[in-house]
């Protein structure tokens, strides 16, 4: 496997000014492709898949782990070249104003069947809990607790706001926040013991493969906490289409089914495999899908991109 990509990890952003970016040289050409990658398993593997393919094309991909706001600023200031996790509607307030100003280009919805919202296991669903309004009817069984991800995350703040507003009787409920891994460990234990549990869920993610879960609905149209239909965008600087039409074409065609990304997340986050190995093994086993992503795309020296990839991943 040819893979000369440089992986740059910024484990913390302490000391950065708000909206600033770790110092990177100005991009003189697009031999390098600089990805901004929040610390989420889905975009980690998705970026790794894209990076391994671009390496075969003669590009030099780099990945830098950064907070979402820093990634968006980096794209707008041409310090980054691509972001594969523009989650709408959650990140719309960050991305859309810059897109309207002509600084960012939403290239493609690389995952279009994503979902975010509160969910329950099948045995709770089968007991009649289908909607947000059903939760408080069974407050004792749920211990008036919603399990959420990190405090400060967009969905966590939305849930907190609904609790403060006593939405559908949730005013005396609490949200128990923790890391995604800790939340899912707790939820998994509750499900194993057949306890009633409601939690922040989303797809793509391995939880949709491991747990028989159901997303709650809501009588309120466009509810922000119930089965929110979401789209994940590939976002690049607005100049990319002109600067490198070949790279832009690849990004335009790089669209992933949520079931595929859920499997990537499962193999990486749940099974604890290295993301580089997950990406390599998946590419080697799914060249038919890769062929569609590379249709009409060329290597840096003008060869057919798919043939170059197939030569190393057969």
Automatic annotation (TrEMBL):
Any GO MF annotation of the entry: transmembrane transporter activity
SUPFAM superfamilies: Periplasmic binding protein-like II (SSF53850)
Any single GO CC term annotated in Swiss-Prot or TrEMBL for this entry: periplasmic space
CDD domains: PBP2_ChoX
Gene3D superfamilies cross-referenced by the UniProt entry: Glycine betaine-binding periplasmic protein, domain 2 (3.40.190.100), Periplasmic binding protein-like II (3.40.190.10)
Superkingdom of origin organism: Bacteria
A Pfam family reported for this protein in Swiss-Prot or TrEMBL: OpuAC
Transmembrane stretches, start-end: none
GO biological process: choline transport
InterPro entries noted in UniProt: ABC_choline_sub-bd, ABC_Gly_betaine_transp_sub-bd
Name of this protein: ABC transporter substrate-binding protein
Organism: Kushneria phosphatilytica
